[in-house]
Amino acid sequence: MADIPTSSSEVTRGEVEQVERALIDASTRVPVLMFYTSAIVWLLIGTLLAGLTSFKMHMPDLLSGVSFLTWGRLRPAHMNAMVYGWASMAGIGTAIWLMARLSLTTLRHPLLLVAGAGFWNLGVLVGLVAILAGQSTGHQWLEFPPYAAAILFVAYSLVVSWAILMFRFRRSGHIYITQWYLLGAFLWFPWLYGATQIMLFVVPVQGVMQAAVNWWFANNLMFLWFGAIGLGTAYYMIPKVIGRPVYSYHLAAIGFWTYALFASWTGMQRLVDGPFPAWMITASIAATILTIIPVATVGLNHHMTMRGHFQLMRYSPTLRFTVFGAFAYTVFSLVGVIISLRSMARYLQFTQASVGYSHLGLYAFFTMIMFGAMYYIVPRLVGREWRYASLIKLHFWSSAYGVGLMVSMLLIGGLVQGRDMNNSALSFTESTQSILPYLRSRSLSGMLLTVSHFIFAFHFGMMLFGLGRTATVPTFLNPHVEDVKTTV
Amino acid sequence: MKGLTALFLGILGTFAFSWVGLTMIPNAQIGNLEPQMDEDGNDPYPAPKSGMADRGRQVYVGNGCIYCHSQQVRPSYGGSDIDRKWGERRSAPRDYLFERPALLGKMRMGPDLSNIGKRAPVDDENAPPPASTDSTAAAPAPPAPGAGTAPPATANPETPATASGAAPPSPAAGSASPAPVVAAQTAPAVATPSGPAISGEPLQYSAEWHHRHLYDPRSMTLDSTMPAYRFLYEKRKIGGQASTDALKLDDHKAPPEGYEIVPTYDAKCLVAYLMSLDQSHALNEVKSNTPVSPQAPGTAVK
User: N or C: which end of chain B has fewer CB within 10 A?
Assistant: First the structure.
């Protein structure tokens, strides 16, 4: 920080840093808002697709006459809109901002990012239209036809080359924990996506290996892309909001490396008893069990950082969403361990429980952390504070209850479905009938989430159009109490 | 900077480890399989799909059938797949040799389809899908299920069982389980496989059954939750003589007088694909399940 000219003696060092941060934030404004706005538009589209998908599961005749609204096309369209439209774009937006802040440099080459966001949107749009037109590839989470994937890859290369440049020009010698995770995510994603595209479409592997590569991709996308961005964000937001350093760097390092090592080996546990060599599945089950180590260290680290400050969740929207997400990460991982055990997988493998598990990871963990990050970052980009605390609260509770209900219905329903499916004294259709009440409740939970997303989009829109509050104090969820830091 | 190099190397190294371990090594192990032949180099299995069935796979993929139907039979210790007559043996990597994409599936909101073609009535003239002969030179006699190359000895220890329990939910024919709503299925199921359809109901898993099931699932399986795929069918004015492939629908579903419902080419391909699904051929690497006696199906329930 020594090279900052502090000409005026009455300017304190703290004030300089504050101005500097504001400058960095301002430089990230256009690209980050572009990623965020696109993400939220995709979130709404994905939500509507999800609603149709969910209702059609227990009302199969709903709109079944229209080819592009048939259930089997809506479902992958929903998943891909959420995975590539919402989650990835929200994640990249957050990662850009964090990278700029932690590298202590104003954002260079914003055009790279703007072009990246444009191409990314184009890729998602082309891919979704292709899926609805019936041109899905049939590989889960990779349904976009190769030409759409190519557009995404171009977009991604623009973003990642920017990120590496940014990191190269960083002014702080120290590399913070968040940067480990972000660098990891930025390097893992292109390898993962590129290698999978090649192994499935360019030089396709034979037969069942396609399914293995597909699961390897899906699990690593969850852990090494979304998981890494989500955990990195939590490592930034929690200490920042409560205003104290991370409890232990040492724990953080153990957590990061064991995560990279073990989480990347998971995936095949979803193929239990399938037509594969048993060692692959066993290796992934073992790796899944070993992920308890990073989960415990990360959880412990966050918990010890938060200790004595949990009451701040009453006030700070960011903290509330982030801590919810960080806790959900622990639950997600433990559920992942339980359902990967052979004795459980036997019942849960082909049931709705796996859908519940995906929502636990992508929504309860990742999406909630992204919401938290947006509540923190957006005011710093638009120079206004969130207008209504009540809307934020409504957003939080409908999201929290919505995803809680959804996940519990799908996990319990999955158990019931699996039990009936494995009981060959019952006709098969009884297993699909027995899950119907749970699917109806899931539709209900989906309605809660729909409400939550539209509220958030409305609130975000207000911020975007300069309708936020002009105030120096952030918007607190509850009346301000003196011991709350202004960094909320 | 030392820390930075270690960070980069670690990030790339851990991932390379997983990439090699979970995709490269398995690929070396099971990624280069050949069709299995008997000692004389005859009877290759599996064979690539015919043109229509191959196109049907794209229809299957494009309409997301995979999100409800799996195509893998687990071994008897790993679930009730074999008890449910979804297959006589577990699936093996070799079964998927020519599948692209391999549609193993991860959800069963509908039954497993690994052997749905095999479970079709034996002498349905649409049943044996023409396996392509041109692509494998060493395939003098592509197996045509039920058509002669497969002698009854290999194909049929199961036949009595399939005949009596052909309903997919196979509710343990003899057992006194309450199994309520299978009326729609039991009617065709009790018919002998070779006999004609009773009272206009198509035999289960025959081509006609598939078409009517796709057009109106609940007319064939009462409590099915499958959506209808009517966009794969055309309503056409009958000019002169009615088409032979027109769907024979119940009165209240039938088109108005002078019109008929006929499958599009895509629908025909899809049905050809479904009828080509057959993993019943014995594989050396897989122990076939000992055939259960027809009197006691489903006794192995855990």
Answer: N
